[in-house]
């Protein structure tokens, strides 16, 4: 990792609003009070949040409404930031402040924090309105019956709260939105800006450095199951810093993502007698649902990092403080899109996001549990959206960008399913399949393999969006074939190619293609060919087929551009266990499961280049114009069958 000094590149201008004037009434004499609203975050900008809208109304009249975009980018506002309101002519008038945070622009609403209060007289009070990871998902866009976003006169989307009327999200729980300003603390800049006066001279909390040597710890889910109102975890003696270990939200290093919690805070953690951590209930709820990998706990105090509190904001490109250094991952190292995954098995990059399958675990009798999932995240990373949960051994997927849906195969229950990429209820398209495995999409048709049944099929799609339907399946398997266990499949234009993995330790695998109306065997006597990829020309047609032998350690190629399929050509050998394969306009890429490497080579032959090493059983791989993406399957399950949640989705620039 490398250290980066935080810079003050685009501070938010201090705003002090006279609510009497803003509401259209004259101010009277006397000493005015102030309410200083403080905005900060425990997330990473712009990865998690890139747009914030702040609205304020006084007894229903709008007094402030501003949109701040490109958060975390050069020239944007910096956090923490403050917004001051003067006491109105009638101090009893209600001030409502709403903070709406979005990702992917102002329409990608993620969370809402709302407070209803008054402005005190004769003093300046502090109101903290943090943008919290635990409240991610606390708001959504209002829509009409057809699903279209509703907008105000200025074109901004209308946002509704996920909490009941009169409540708002704090640390993942719905609490009353009304705050008594008499109970708010007096404003002190040093308590907001890391000990500084608000001119960038304070310190910030360097998350990656402070948790570099942290120990991981679980939350006590047994106790939570017994009493759902209390969330606890054990902590070592002495002062500590605590962070949530997420799947992609928060501040990410090379192998983990952290959301630091404020010490001695109801919205963070408190240390109780016997070194027990008291945590927000939402922490246990997320851990129980598998959305959190646990906690990171690190020593704090003398010779260590300072204890994180509300007075010590996080460091990062978004920081308004110059008095701290921000540790960032090595620019040459792989960047995590998602971490703490359970055995991911398949990956696609499309529609501005990365979508993958988290594999199922197995019980003591070798039966797959229904704990697999289909997940998606933006290409820049962030907390994944679960598109399909409790899946029975999901195996492969395909993305339809035009319809904005994802398809996947479930081997255990023999289904082919579809779900909108934005989230929604998954739907079964086909059932009673014989262990469906590979899946590919092109030209409005889905192709899939059935591992047990031995067949390869294609069916045309119809309909739009989530209402897509699948036509009658057409079998593509060559007549009289003796090959077994069709595995992965790839398609482009009118060409579909697939592998028969055969039997481990034997040369009974094969590769076949359907080109136009003819199905042909491209190569026989292969050693466990699994992964397959097509080289596609500028018109969307398959120019060549590539495949990789899991056991044999070879990559092969056959030309598809002529009237007949070309002879197989071995272009790479002695590569160990090949577990992923991709092709772009200039290179062929593969992953070595045994060596933990990601490798590429020019398609025309030449020097091999290791793009990443030290990977944990790397598997499926994908490329777009500028980036290489791959999955790490992670460590094998423990002796008790419990999964080790160290799988990951990673990327690096080409």
TrEMBL record:
<feature type="region of interest" description="Disordered">
    <location>
        <begin position="632"/>
        <end position="654"/>
    </location>
</feature>
<dbReference type="GO" id="GO:0042813">
    <property type="term" value="F:Wnt receptor activity"/>
</dbReference>
<feature type="signal peptide">
    <location>
        <begin position="1"/>
        <end position="27"/>
    </location>
</feature>
<dbReference type="GO" id="GO:0005886">
    <property type="term" value="C:plasma membrane"/>
</dbReference>
<protein>
    <submittedName>
        <fullName>Membrane protein</fullName>
    </submittedName>
</protein>
<dbReference type="GO" id="GO:0017147">
    <property type="term" value="F:Wnt-protein binding"/>
</dbReference>
<keyword id="KW-0732">Signal</keyword>
<dbReference type="InterPro" id="IPR011042">
    <property type="entry name" value="6-blade_b-propeller_TolB-like"/>
</dbReference>
<dbReference type="GO" id="GO:0060070">
    <property type="term" value="P:canonical Wnt signaling pathway"/>
</dbReference>
<dbReference type="InterPro" id="IPR050778">
    <property type="entry name" value="Cueball_EGF_LRP_Nidogen"/>
</dbReference>
